[in-house]
Amino acid sequence: MNTNLINFDNAATTFPKPPEVRNSVIYAMNNYGGSSGRGGHILAARTSEMVFRTRRAAAEFFGADTENVIFCSSCTHALNTAIKGVLRPGDHVVTSSLEHNSVIRPLTELQQRGLISFSVAKVYEDDEKTAESFRNSINSRTKAVVCTAASNVTGQILPLKLISGICISKNICLIADGAQACGVIPLNLKDYGINILCTSGHKGLYGITGTGLLVTDGKFSIHPLMQGGTGSGSLEPVQPEYMPDSLESGTLNTCGIASLEAGIGFISKMTTEKIKQYEDRLVDIFLSETEKYTNIILYRPVHSACVPIVSFNIADIPSDKTAEILSSRGFCLRAGFHCSAMAHRTLGTETGTVRFAPSVFNSEADVKKLCQEIKKIKYPIEKI
Amino acid sequence: MTLYFRSHTAAMKASALLSENNIPNKTGKSTVRNLGCVYTAEIRNDFEKAQTLLRENGINYISGAGGMRYEHKSD
After folding, report:
1. Which residues of A touch B72 (CB under 8 A)?
2. Complex ipTM, two decimals?
3. Using the beta-carbon criterion (under 8 Å), do B16 and A39 form an inter-chain contact?
4. Among A12, A49, A297, A372, which residue's CB has the most CB atoms within a 10 Å radius?
5. What is the number of domains present in chain B?
6. B58: containing domain
7. Domains of chain A, first to last
8. Which residues of A touch B28 (CB under 8 A)?
């Protein structure tokens, strides 16, 4: 491992991982060699027990029933399962102006096939205004609201509780994208009125890549995205209807699930509140340092609550150039559009932005070093 | 005595519940004619108490799996 690198691209994937997560993967490689739910022998049973423990831990963490936790390969997989599983021909959907392509692309694909229609509710810094924007976008055919809990570009936290209030009153399914919020906001189905929560496992939950979760309250039925082996109901040619088997075809990602158990354990021990508090402190240092630089442009809502993410540019230097300079100096930050073209269109950032996204493994000194390097970047652009 | 479940998760959930209520059990998997693969929780005693616990906690189990019936209880 290159210990000279400082990672501030934790909104894409947290790195490094907690020691217990790394150890859990090694342990899984050595001990969980069976296929969960596929046999009665010791290896399969041992693996199945670990998968169940993780499912139960995730259920407790997000306030759901154990069988309503579905292991996915990513948040994108979970969102596709939710969106394509809940919607039926003729349905209408409301989404926000800050969505990731993992929401916009499935919706656009369904729309282009003539199956659904969707409207985009504008997000404002004023939560009441945002909720009103969602309310005004709903029509009599609206089946679902698909909405991020926090923007992966600006960090803005959306007023999910206000939005869920509207959804509940109109019997609309609220599908939340928790990719940037889970692990820093105590998202819970019951408290937030979310029907289906989708999240990645490799970001704020500190699991490894190739993991994701769909957690549902079971109120809206989800037609499976795939059909196949589940280890159960083997004589039936049709997919089981019961959860989680209905939505989990194919052998599960054992090492990934073991990493999630450790990751959720890590967060639960530390608490999301303390994690956010710590990362907010790092963001405050970043903002207070960089705000002194006349050539920096910060894209961060002033009047809204945010997760620890800050987008910025230096004068009119293309974001990829800034990130390239910082990378050459040992700092990993993601530039470009962050798979969220709509959010960038809303911001008017034609060449994208550079994104600062700390984790609990960054120190205050790391942030100060980064700020010093940002300060050194001169305009017109230096040769690299 | 064996309790049968359609899904692995239901069997594990039942197993945890039984253990919490001091009913020792062992989970497994078996094959039942006309039904295929099922998941099991084997218990030595307290069969009635176990079934009551499952029903009260909304955990679905299969009755008569050792025979040929597929009767889904407690829905």
Report:
1. none
2. 0.72
3. no
4. A12
5. 1
6. 2-72
7. 6-16+271-376 (3.90.1150.10), 19-269 (3.40.640.10)
8. 40, 45
